């Protein structure tokens, strides 16, 4: 457990490849509702298409996407024809990412904090 608290060790295993913020609170809410209803919101689908190494003709076995929710993962897998990883290990990765998210998003994080202080 101590190794999950060490950002230097974690950042050797987990790297941030892409990130996008919700532009509005309405968009964030739509994404929450969509994931609960097991639909992929259009902006999430576009983000995945832009940032994953998708092949058009055959399924891509050179990468897999970690998804915490197995049912949502299955929907993504079927929609984009990609491999999905779920399970306890993915939950542990997710926990590590949540713990260190502010370090991965240094500049974005400070902007978000500034916005919260203004409001």
Description:
Helix 5 links the parallel strand 1 (about 60-65) and strand 2. The chain is globular and about 35 Å long. It is mostly helical. The chain has helices spanning about 1-5, 5-15, 25-35, 40-50, 70-80, 90-105, 105-119; strands at about 60-65, 80-85. It has a two-stranded parallel sheet. The chain has seven helices and two strands, in the order H-H-H-H-E-H-E-H-H.
- Largest sheet, order of strands side by side? 1-2
Q: Count of helical segments?
A: 7
Largest sheet entry:
2 strands, parallel
Task: Give the overall shape.
Answer: globular
- How many DSSP E strands? 2
Number of domains: 1
- Computed over alpha carbons, the radius of gyration is 16 Å
Structural class estimated from helices and strands:
mainly alpha
Strand content: 5-15%
Helix content range = 55-70%
Tell me the series of helices and strands, N- to C-terminal: HHHHEHEHH
Averaged pLDDT, please?
83
Would you identify the regions where 5 or more consecutive residues have pLDDT less than 50? none
